[in-house]
Design goal:
It contains 3 helices and 4 strands, in the order ββαββαα. By secondary structure, it is α+β, with helices and mostly antiparallel strands.
């Protein structure tokens, strides 16, 4: 378990992540984190689950409509 310290950043509040946690999550300065509701609280992830869902739908459409997309590309 990790504890994050909240600190004042201008008019906002930021969280300070320990170096080993950043390495474990493969995060660097400027990366984005996404918070989603989970049954037991909040989930913090590096990827955007909504975008991932949209991409999976797009991949399925491209797979089914391969011939149409090929014609449109000409």
């Amino acid at each position: 378990m990790y504890t994050l310290k909240l600190t004042q950043v201008g008019n906002s509040v930021g969280a300070v992540f320990p170096k080993d946690l950043l390495a474990k999550l493969d995060l660097t300065k400027g990366d984005e984190l996404y918070l989603t509701d989970a049954p037991d609280g909040l989930r913090i992830t590096k990827h955007n689950p909504e975008f991932e869902h949209q991409m999976s739908v797009a991949r399925e459409v491209m797979k089914r409509r391969r011939a149409v997309l090929r014609e449109l590309a000409k």
